[in-house]
From TrEMBL:
This is SmpA/OmlA family lipoprotein. InterPro entries: BamE-like (IPR037873), BamE_dom (IPR007450). It comes from the Bacteria. Keywords: Lipoprotein, Membrane, Signal. Signal peptide: none annotated.
Amino acid sequence: MRQFSRHSPRGRILLAIGLSALVLGASGCTRIRTHQGYSIDKLLVDSVQPGIDNRASVEGTLGRPSFVSQFGEQDWYYVSREMRALAFSNPKPVEQTVLRVRFDPAGNVAAVDRMGLDQVAHISPMGDKTPTLGRNRSLFDEIFGNIGAVGAGGMGGGGGGSNTGGGPNGS
């Protein structure tokens, strides 16, 4: 049996292949950090002052909001979230900031509120199925269930009418 030395050309090639496999394997388990949404600049956010700024100045300073409230007062929301995931696992929020700019009826800034990750609701679904109303039908029932139902009573079909008279109005 032949042995390889790390000083031989074959030994160096095997050593290089082994090290590259180790590096590539380890890089698949790195943490992935992503940023979603608005990039909050603390200096710009702190420059928005209630009673001084209005919609136009807020848009000039912070830009367009992530979304605007649809009901009630027209509040502007700027949402920023930092996510972290390990390899192929589901990403988890690490940090979140929701900046709400409230306006008075005249369009001036009334307040600037910040909310964090503590405001996120954690929902834990029960089971692996969503309950629905209606019938339990299999795939075959869905595909072949309407065969023979064309023109059946109550389905709005035009056949088999019970007109007793000879005229178009039953007379």
